[in-house]
Amino acid sequence: MTIYVGRKERVYGVPAYMALRDLMYRRQLAGASVFLGVDGTAHGHRQRARFFNGNADVPVIFIAVGSVERIGQLLPELGGLLRRPR
Q1: Cα four-point dihedral sign 25, 29, 31, 32
Q2: Beta carbons within 10 angstroms of residue 62's beta carbon
């Protein structure tokens, strides 16, 4: 499963990717990785990373792996965590 969130997005006061990581760990998915995007679109707006920049608006890519059943059980929870899930 691949999820894109903004680098500044927060869930319960913590960065969204950390909240996603914690949820995946609690639900015992096989693994997950988080990558800072270099160039991408989040919520319809293209953002490009710059070398000497905080890159706050560049998307974060969250990739999780696990069984179809476990990921299917997560979907309602993801909808509750993220403001604009897609």
Answers
A1: negative
A2: 19
Q: Is residue 58 a contact partner of residue 47, using CB atoms and an 8 Å limit?
A: yes
Q: Which two tokens stand for residue 38?
A: 């270099």
Q: Which domains can be identified in the chain, with CATH numbers?
A: 2-81 (3.30.70)
Q: What is the tens place of the pLDDT at every residue in 5-20? A: 887 888 999 999 899 9
C-alpha–C-alpha distance, residues 56 and 28, integer Å: 30
Q: Of 64, 57, 60, 58, give the one whose Cα is nearest residue 78.
A: 64
Element (H, E) at 81: helix 68-81
Check: CB of residue 64 under 8 Å from CB of residue 3. yes
Residue 3 tokens read as 């999820």
Residues 27-49 have pLDDT tens digits of: 999 999 998 777 666 667 776 66
